[in-house]
Amino acid sequence: MHHATSLRRTLTAVLATTLLAGGVLLGQTATAEPASAATISCNINKLRTDARKERDRANQLKRLGATTEARKAIARADALERRAKQCADAENNSRPPLWQ
Prior knowledge:
Helix content: over 70%
Number of helices: 3
Structural class: mainly alpha
Largest sheet: none
Distance between the termini: 66 Å
Radius of gyration: 26 Å
């Protein structure tokens, strides 16, 4: 009798977990917007220009001996360049296929 009680608890827990996970997954698919619905608007040239300015500022800080601030400026420049690359990739990949 003891085994039946633990088995019932286990099955109930597994069933509840499955139902909750399924509900979350179904809820996400029902409310998720398609990728084409959101428009991406970012100025790639401005991001690259800002990254270049930040790198120049980092070099100047490094020459002045402020290495900690220079590292932070380099990190900001890297982040700006990553964002510009992401925007460029998204722009290149969002075009419809040639046959449409």
